[in-house]
């Protein structure tokens, strides 16, 4: 040792850092105060709640880094197979409470802050939501990360570090306005910038073919190059040292590329054009589900996918000298078609850069990728024009053509020369404007494709990908979505959490949600029922306070809180909800005082964002607010009905709203919602569902029992016929009358609402509002009837929570791990 300087240095390092940070209250306080002074550079004698948040977050981050480092080292040593989850969106929400809860140090932090004169609840509210996603698809990705970490899988998420997340919604005179969400301008204490983990990403240019020693080689000379810089976000599992990584890429001007332009004399313009690079990771596209074909979007997709694959390959090469067992160590999950350009990119990296034979590279590629589809109709799947690909990614287009040619050759052997059939299977859509069907490309290259609920997976086989199913039946699986009970129950509903733990006699349900079935036996127990309602009333009171603060509307917590919160889309039918609210108001106004005493008071809460270019969705928002204004100020209606639009619905608001809801609505046209995941969160929290036969509603109904859910409307198998016959269909009188009220200006803005009313005119009513209206009103009446019987309602509520075990994302994750990714849980033994 004496003579070995390296060993001496290591020993000193061990001595300097011989133990982990301690988690007693005093040590935590020291960490926080140190960060106030040295990281935030404020005085420890004077810092506000926001600074307290930043210092607290930094102290938690220190602890996360310790387990992150250990975990990465462990998996490096084990050389475990890892899943990489590639997603354009990660809708993470806040991290502070999640992290300290998962690390098991919430109580210590609460006390530590308290003794310093701060309140944990106030401090956590200082954090801005990380809204790098639109809705279900992005939030599912976030739930997966929590579950993968908790269940000790080796996993990384890869995505884009958008400077601007999903826009913030404000309402002016009831109209939606969009404000940029520049979430990074107050700093992001959770991320670790890796200035040295960068990859070049190329665009445009040309490809040259050359014969080298009897093989054709391809050299792509790009015209533009940017650099992808890694930002790591540690994701802690619950009650485990397994902290996994979410690596997000930011675009920076490339240091090496185009040095000559500086010598041309136009120094300032050369720098300005370099800055353009940053626009690639600037902004998240708001989803309106209609495919738009914007060049920047394709650039974003290629940018993050190429960086991720280069990073994955670099990591693999640290341990392996050939790519022979790449697929034994790497699984790549594509979150919808958005990262599909990864298929030709992996081929390019293996063939052009690493020098593998095409056949070998294709064999590897098809063993690595699998894809989850989240949409219900083929029209929403991405198609990139051949012209755009030719310009932006010329080499990739060549590769796609070759994949397609080989694929069609292969299927010809199976189906013969049926050209119509071959054209449907082809990855290239012919026609005036040729395009590449990304769904088809992904399917050809993936070993597995899955839908996100049982019904949806069937629809994929029968409709969206029928032609593929016929030739590749073995590729198709179902993986019904789930949600993490850590965020969506344990820490957003602490009252219910404690009660569950008390009645079940264990907190093991936090990692094994099936244990909730243990509640069945107590569903009618008057003591549990009493406690249950107390917790629910407390949650409702919190939401009532919030509603009054933002809208000035006073709501009674004795009223039923009837909630529909989700992105505004025609297929989700918020309009159907509004129509029934108008109907309800109208009925109340026509009642005698005696009849009014029998009405169940309701607070109808609606929230959600409309994509900025989605005019009809924006009109729906305006209608909700105008109708609300009228009803809330109507003396004849009083407290019997209130209507509130909650602006800027996001993850944090969901955490407040879901535990406080009595009834929640999931009323898309049958079969039109791929799965839905908020329905699972509501069910878990003891909220009853008013639902159609769509997506996972059907599976929830099966788990909790028909008597504990309100289901209405057409059946999925009837929808095609009803649509075809909609011109002849006569909607009920009430439906016409209510539409007439809006049309004739009862709520003002007569002109503005005409187009909205037209969408439900007989021939136009694609989402079948008219067809389902009567059955919806009947279901609403059944809801009122059940609510009056408090004992019955509470029992139903308990049965919802008790039956929600199957909708834990841990179940979903396990199914992916076992049936798609081939990975096993793995953690250090000591
Ligand atoms: C949702 N999809 C499904 N898409 O609608 C929902 N799309 O039923 C399902 O539960 C959820 O995925 C999770 O599987 C989306 O959220 C998008 O956000 C989106 C964004 C851009 C382009 C297309």
Written description of the protein model:
The strands form 6 sheets. The chain has a 9-stranded mixed β-sheet with strand order 7-10-11-4-1-12-13-17-18, with helices on both faces. Strands 21-20-19-22-23-24 form a 6-stranded parallel β-sheet, with helices on both faces. Helix 11 (about 340-355) packs across helix 14 (about 395-415) and helix 24 crosses helix 30 (about 750-760). The protein is about 45% helix and about 15% strand. The protein folds into 2 domains: about 80-95 and about 130-480 and about 815-820, Rossmann fold; about 560-800, Rossmann fold. The chain is built from 33 helices and 24 strands. With about 850 residues, it is of the alpha/beta class. The structure holds ligand T68. Ligand T68 binds near residues 287, 675 and 677. Ligand T68 binds near residues 137, 140, 287 and 675. This is Alpha-1,4 glucan phosphorylase. It catalyses: [(1->4)-alpha-D-glucosyl](n) + phosphate = [(1->4)-alpha-D-glucosyl](n-1) + alpha-D-glucose 1-phosphate. Its cofactor is pyridoxal 5'-phosphate.
């Amino acid at each position: 040792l004496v003579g070995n300087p390296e060993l001496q240095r290591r020993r000193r390092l061990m001595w300097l850092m011989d133990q982990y940070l301690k988690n007693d209250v005093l040590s935590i306080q020291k960490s926080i105060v140190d960060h106030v002074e040295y990281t935030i550079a404020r005085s420890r004698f004077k810092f506000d709640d926001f600074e307290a948040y930043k210092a607290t977050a930094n102290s938690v981050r220190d602890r996360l880094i310790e387990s992150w480092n250990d975990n990465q080292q462990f998996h490096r040593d084990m050389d475990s197979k890892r899943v990489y989850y590639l997603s354009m969106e990660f809708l993470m929400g806040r991290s502070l409470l999640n992290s300290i809860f998962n690390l098991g140090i919430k109580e210590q932090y609460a006390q530590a802050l308290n003794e310093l004169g701060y309140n944990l609840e106030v401090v956590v509210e200082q954090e801005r939501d990380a809204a790098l996603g639109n809705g279900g698809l992005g939030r599912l990705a976030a739930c997966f990360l929590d579950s993968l970490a908790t269940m000790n899988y080796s996993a990384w998420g890869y995505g884009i570090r958008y400077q601007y997340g999903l826009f913030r919604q404000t309402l002016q005179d009831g109209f939606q306005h969009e404000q940029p969400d520049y979430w990074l301008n107050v700093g992001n204490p959770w991320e670790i910038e890796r200035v040295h983990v960068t990859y070049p990403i190329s665009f445009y240019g040309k490809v040259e073919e050359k014969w080298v020693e009897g093989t054709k080689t391809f050299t792509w000379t790009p015209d533009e190059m940017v650099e992808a810089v890694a930002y790591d976000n540690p994701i802690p599992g619950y009650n485990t040292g397994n902290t996994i990584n979410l690596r997000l890429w930011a675009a920076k001007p490339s240091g090496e590329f185009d040095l000559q332009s500086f010598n041309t004399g136009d120094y300032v313009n050369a720098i300005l054009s370099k800055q353009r690079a940053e626009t690639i990771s600037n902004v998240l596209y708001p989803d309106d589900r209609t495919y738009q074909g914007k060049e920047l979007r394709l650039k974003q997709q290629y940018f993050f996918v190429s960086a991720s694959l280069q990073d994955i390959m670099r990591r693999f090469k640290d341990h392996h000298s050939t790519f022979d067992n790449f697929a034994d160590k790497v699984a790549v999950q594509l979150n919808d078609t958005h990262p599909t350009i990864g298929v030709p990119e992996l081929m390019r990296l293996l063939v052009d850069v690493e020098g593998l034979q095409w056949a070998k590279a294709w064999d590897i590629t098809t063993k690595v990728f699998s894809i989850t589809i989240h949409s219900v109709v083929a029209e929403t799947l991405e198609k990139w024009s051949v012209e755009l690909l030719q310009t932006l990614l010329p080499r990739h287009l060549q590769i796609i053509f070759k994949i397609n040619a080989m694929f069609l050759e292969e299927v010809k052997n199976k189906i013969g020369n049926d050209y119509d059939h071959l054209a449907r299977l082809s990855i290239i859509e012919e026609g005036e404007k040729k395009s590449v069907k990304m769904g088809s490309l992904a399917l050809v290259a993936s070993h597995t494709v899955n839908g996100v609920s049982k019904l949806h997976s069937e629809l994929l086989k029968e409709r969206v990908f029928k032609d593929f199913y016929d030739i590749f039946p073995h590729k198709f699986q179902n993986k019904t979505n789930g949600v993490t009970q850590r965020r969506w129950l344990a820490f957003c509903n602490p009252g219910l959490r404690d009660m569950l733990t008390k009645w079940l006699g264990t907190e093991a349900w936090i990692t094994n949600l099936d244990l909730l079935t243990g509640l069945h036996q107590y569903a009618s127990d008057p003591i549990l029922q009493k406690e249950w309602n107390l917790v629910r009333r407390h949650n409702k009171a919190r939401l009532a306070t919030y509603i009054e603060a933002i809208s000035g509307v006073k709501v009674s917590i004795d009223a039923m809180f009837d909630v529909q919160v989700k992105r505004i889309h025609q297929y989700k039918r918020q309009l159907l909800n509004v129509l029934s609210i108008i109907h309800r108001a109208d009925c109340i106004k026509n009642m005698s005082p005696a009849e009014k005493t029998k009405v169940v008071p309701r607070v109808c809460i609606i929230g959600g964002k409309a994509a900025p270019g989605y005019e009809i969705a924006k009109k729906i928002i305006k209608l909700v607010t105008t109708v609300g204004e009228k009803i809330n100020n109507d003396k004849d209606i009083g407290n019997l009905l209130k209507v509130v639009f909650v602006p800027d619905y996001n993850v944090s608001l969901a955490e407040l709203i879901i535990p406080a809801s009595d009834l929640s609505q999931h009323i898309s046209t049958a079969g039109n919602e791929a799965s839905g995941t908020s329905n699972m969160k509501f069910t878990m929290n003891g909220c009853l569902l008013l639902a159609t036969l769509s997506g996972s509603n059907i599976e929830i109904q099966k788990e909790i029992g028909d008597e504990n859910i309100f289901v209405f409307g057409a059946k999925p198998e009837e929808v095609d016929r009803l649509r075809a016959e909609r011109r002849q269909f006569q909607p009920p009188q009430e439906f016409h009358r209510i539409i007439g009220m809006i049309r004739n200006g009862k709520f003002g803005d007569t002109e503005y609402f005409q187009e909205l009313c037209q969408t439900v005119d007989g021939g136009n009513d694609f989402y079948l509002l008219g067809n389902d209206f009567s059955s919806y009103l009947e279901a609403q009446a059944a809801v009122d009837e059940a609510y009056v019987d408090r004992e019955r309602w509470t029992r139903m509520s308990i049965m919802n929570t008790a039956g929600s075990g199957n909708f834990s994302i841990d179940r979903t994750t396990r199914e992916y791990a076992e049936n798609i990714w081939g990975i096993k849980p793995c953690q250090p033994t000591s």
